[in-house]
Amino acid sequence: MKLQRTGRVAVATLAVVAALGMSACGSGDKHSSSSSSAKVTTSASAAVAPSTALPPVPTAAQLNQELSEALDPNVPADQKVQYLEDGQDALAKDPDMLKKLTDAYQQNNAHIEVTDVTSLGDTLTATVSFSIGGGAPQPAQVPFIAQDGKWKLQKSWACAGLQNLGATSPACT
Predict the structure, then answer these.
(1) Of 132, 72, 62, nearest in space to 102 by CA
(2) Angstrom distances, CA of residue 134 to CA of 22, 50, 108, 109, 138
(3) Whether the Cβ atoms of residue 142 and residue 20 lie closer than 8 Å to each other
(4) How far apart are the first and last CA of the chain?
(5) Cα distance between residue 21 and residue 105, in whole Å
(6) What is the rounded CA–CA span in Å between residue 38 and residue 54?
(7) What DSSP letter does each residue of 89-142 carry, written as one string?
(8) Could you list the pLDDT tens digit for every one of the 173 residues in the chain?
(9) Which strands, in side-by-side order, build the sheet including 39-42?
């Protein structure tokens, strides 16, 4: 029983990570009418202008707004892949990688909320709270990198999640 629960937690965690990765590029034209206690933190190193332009740091509200589209099984993978580090290469190596992640999120009745975004220069960390099947929310840290003018989920983190589930993907080799 404990092994099954651990597997469900791992599946949901991976799905949550994929969802964030697929929605990590917040656009500046989306507005949220609800208030939130979520915050954006900027480190001292990010305050110094980098030599190359970084994408704007998305707010927690922007990431949360994009989650519904990112987790929609009706949105094609070729539209979602832009949010994964080296996503086009990953999709070419494993066309079902993103579908597996979206399906796992849906099957486990997972819920995710971004609560904080911390910029670290050319990387950022999203702090999230997620739950599975109505269970107690659990915190997690999700790493992103700046690539091609967007914030993208680190592929190595997504691949580690797949490994934790006992799954493999040609995109992770």
Answers:
(1) 72
(2) 23, 42, 10, 8, 11
(3) yes
(4) 32
(5) 13
(6) 22
(7) HHHHH-TTHHHHHHHHHHHTTEEEEEEEEEE-SSEEEEEEEEEETT---EEEEE
(8) 544 544 444 444 444 444 444 434 444 443 333 334 444 444 434 444 444 689 999 999 887 777 777 778 898 988 888 888 999 999 999 999 888 777 777 777 888 888 999 999 889 999 999 888 889 999 989 888 899 998 888 898 778 766 765 677 899 88
(9) 39-42, 110-119, 123-132, 138-147, 150-153
Tokens of residue 30, six digits? 């989306």
Number of residues assigned to the chain: 173
Q: Would you state the structure tokens that stand for residue 100, as one six-digit string? A: 């597996």
